[in-house]
Amino acid sequence: MRDKAMTTVFPLRTANLADPAPEYPWPAGKSCALFPAFDVDGETAWLQHDAANTDRLVTLSFGGYEERVGVPKILEHLRSVEIKATFFIPGWIVDVHPAMCEAIVRDGHEIGHHGYLHNRPDPANFAADQEEFEKGMASLKRVLGVVPVGYRAAGGENYDELLAHIRERGILYSSSFRDDIRPYRHRQRDGSAGVIELPINASFDDWLYGLSQRFSPRPMFPSEHVLSIWNGELDQTREWGGLVSMVMHPQVSGRPMRFGIMRDFLARARGFGDVWIATGREIAAHFVAQETVARL
């Protein structure tokens, strides 16, 4: 049975529980929350797609753009508008591009766990997923001195055994699931409380609009189309009092026109005055505080 005090505000969730999300009290009277988050996949996006891409240098150069242009331009803009974001980084990227990752840390942004080689978790292969997680954790700590509290699964997949493992390793929140517009806490199959989930709205995955045509016939979307989608989603989420979790990639949103989409969207969100723009760590910490109040 679920803890009664907890369900009045924060339900524990698994894929087969379908309780409606409760009203979520955002801080300082804010209407909704915006979670600006970047997946710094770099070359791992292409190596994970096909190991033979190791020798396809033009394909790898899509990922290499992040260190040369994408991440520096994004950091410059975030500094100019005084926004702190969360950067989910695979361990391989930290090992290969330490200067880029150190620049993110110096600017005061949150670093989240994103695997090691961006391998998609598979419930039939927990041992490999455990190794992938531990290698990523080790790289973040060794190179950046960071012990992350946030985790975004590569390829957006997860399962009960892996959720339990990341909880045991100190992860406070996940941002991978697509099943709500408000934060919630997972319930493991053994009935125990899992990590907090900051669910993603897939409409905010820039890869869907800006780069996936290399391996598919999907064309690039013009800026007015993407802004129309993002602005419409934000408007309705504000009305519902929910959370907008973004999935931006510097090799997409760091490109000139795509950068403009991100810039204009963030400016509009700030202009409302009632949108809480926060890191995953901040949102999860607020959730924990409210969860504690609900138990009293």
UniProtKB/TrEMBL annotation:
SUPFAM superfamilies listed in its UniProt record: Glycoside hydrolase/deacetylase
Pfam family, one: Polysacc_deac_1
Lineage: Bacteria, Pseudomonadati, Pseudomonadota, Alphaproteobacteria, Hyphomicrobiales
Domain of life: Bacteria
Coiled-coil stretches noted in the UniProt entry, renumbered to this chain: none
Family to which the UniProt record says this protein belongs: Belongs to the polysaccharide deacetylase family.
Organism of origin: Bosea vaviloviae
Main function: Is involved in generating a small heat-stable compound (Nod), an acylated oligomer of N-acetylglucosamine, that stimulates mitosis in various plant protoplasts.
Domain NodB homology: 56-296
Record protein name field: Chitooligosaccharide deacetylase
GO biological process, one term: carbohydrate metabolic process
Single GO MF annotation: hydrolase activity, acting on carbon-nitrogen (but not peptide) bonds
